[in-house]
Amino acid sequence: MAMDVVDFEIFGSEMQYVEVELDPGEAAVGEAGAMMYMQDGIQMDTVFGDGSQQGGFFGKLMGAGKRLLTGESLFTTVFHNEGQGKRRVAFAAPYPGKIVPVHLAEVGGTLIAQKDSFLAAAKGVSLGIAFQKKLGVGLFGGEGFIMQKLDGDGWAFLHAGGTLLERTLAPGELLRIDTGCVVAFQPSVDFDIQYVGKIKTALFGGEGLFFATLRGPGKVWLQSLPLSRLANRIVMAAPAAGGRSQGEGSLLGGMALGGLLGGDD
Amino acid sequence: MSGTIRGRLFGPGLPGAGSDALLSWRGEYLAVTTAATQREVAASELRVDASGFNAAQTRLAWTSAEGEFVLFLDTPAREALAASAPAGLAAGLLGAARAQRQVERRFRLGWSVLGLILLLPLLALVLFVLNADSIAGSVAERIPPEHEAKLGELTLAQVRAGLKLHEDGPALRAVRDIGQRLSEGSRYRYRFFVADSPEVNAFAAPGGVVVVYTGLIRAADSAEELAGVLAHEVAHVELRHSLKAAVKGLGLRALAALALGDLSGGVAGDVAARLTDLKFSRDAETEADREGLRRLLAAGISPHGMPRFFETLAAGEGNTAVALAVLSSHPPSRERMARLRDEIGKLPPAQFTPLPIDWREVREAAR
Prior knowledge:
- The complex is a heterodimer.
- Chain A is an alpha+beta fold.
- Chain A has helices at residues 57-69, 135-140, 199-204, 227-237, 255-262; strands at 7-11, 17-22, 27-31, 35-38, 42-48, 75-81, 87-92, 97-103, 110-114, 118-122, 126-131, 146-151, 155-161, 164-169, 174-177, 182-185, 190-195, 210-215, 218-223.
- In chain A, strands 5-6-3-10-13-8 form a six-stranded antiparallel β-sheet. Chain A has a six-stranded antiparallel β-sheet with strand order 11-12-9-16-19-14, covered by helices on one side.
- In chain A, strand 1 and strand 2 (17-22) form a beta hairpin.
- The N and C termini of chain A lie far apart (56 Å).
- Helices cover 56% and strands 16% of the residues of chain B.
- Chain B is built from 13 helices and eleven strands.
- Chain B has helices at residues 75-83, 87-130, 132-141, 145-162, 170-182, 214-219, 223-238, 241-260, 267-298, 305-316, 319-323, 333-346, 359-365; strands at 5-10, 19-26, 29-33, 38-42, 47-51, 57-63, 68-73, 164-165, 191-196, 202-205, 209-213.
- Chain B has a seven-stranded antiparallel β-sheet with strand order 4-3-2-1-7-6-5. Chain B has a four-stranded mixed β-sheet with strand order 8-9-11-10, sandwiched between helices.
- In chain B, helix 7 (223-238) crosses helix 10, helix 8 (241-260) packs antiparallel against helix 9 (267-298) and helix 10 packs antiparallel against helix 12.
- Chain B is rod-shaped and about 120 Å long.
- Chain B starts with a strand and ends with a helix.
- The A-B interface holds A 106-108, 112, 130-135, 168-172, 185-191, 215-219 and B 8, 10-11, 15-18, 20, 51-57, 59, 61, 68-70, 72, 103-104, 106-107, 110.
């Protein structure tokens, strides 16, 4: 199906947003709740499913059901430009990290992404699910059994936590990565797991029992800080959840004095 | 040459993300055309395997003077290519397809096993409900009579706490006399009691404890009617009905808790257990009627008292009781009476000596 050609610009460094420019009549789809602002003339329309299904009610229902499985809202929002000139709409990343623009035509039309990494795309990109069919990878690969599949030939915007690594693997090149760090890869990449190799490492190395492995050829995108890891650290440090309140900057660091001098608690 | 077959080619001089390629066979050679270049590879140089995400893609690899090239095909492209491939390569392509199917099969198998594990308690529950009677029966067979007697003792203690039992008197004597005749030759040590209560009721606890309410004695018109009720209760004991019901209820509750994930044995489990419990009782009542009838005949007591007593009960029973028949623990008296009369009718005619009991005195004592 014909994709809308959109121009875009990414702003910010660690907490980014992407601004998409729509010509009159063009449209973009965004994850529900990701919109940051839009210019006058852009109409917002909420559709059941991902807005790419042409079929009847059943097709839409299937699309919506798949979205539910990938951990996203049942609805997507479509932003049309109903104005006269070019108009802009911006989508913001939900947590610190980088926005990854991927031109689907350049990677062969299909991209496998970690679930709930989708941010926005040109209208016509279809979001499906790709079941991880290797049981070991599903259980220990860190991305679970359900991944997201993006099909189309326009721009899609994904979101990665922390710093982004974009790498092109040569045929047969192997990259061993920590589980949970995969954002997206081309379908020609073989996603598998590998035992860390030593009992001592498995138990005390802190990397778990398995590495995830990506074998080329193809492009892969990795994130340095998966949201779940960030969330764990924040919860561990939160005083409300039993974490230790640290008097940062206080020499004594004691509760009474630190609290008095710090003043902010 | 067939229609266009598309693949994605990776290799030296090509973009890292690969580039689209059109494929066709030229005899023993595979022509690979990208936007910029065209290559021909001999089929014999191609190595085939399944690779990529989920091993869902077929990988064709070959080494040329420039270096290593790999070509990725999706399933429709592989099939199209295999249709016109030279014989040597077709086998390799089939092998790749097999490898892909194996991943798919393992995936399905894994999920089926997981689903089965999740459904197992539910399955066990269904199996148990379907076979509850025979399972409870065989478990109950393994419980020795001494344990039953202990259970009966417990029940009796509870009854004593709630009801006043007759210590002596014509009513108790009559009940004991008839009861002894009916339970002759039993492996249980029977004990008969009369409880002071206006309720028209009688019950049997495991191990041979039988309690008759004074209300029932007042409602009965003759000693034979009381004998009918006692025969029914003795049959309950002999057939171990309450023990089986208890075993079944416990098993059901445990399984329901397992299946429904409610360890406190919550409402759903309780209702399920009770509903089948009642059904058990209904079947058991009919069975006890039949066995009671047999015992009456064996003891030489007229069986006509049994249906006659049900007649009395039926006269007092309104239509609401019929409507609630499914949920009641006793089948409607009319139904039972009809069945009993039917069975008595089938018996050869016989003379019975009336019971040597002054029924008027007994009824007076039950007042």
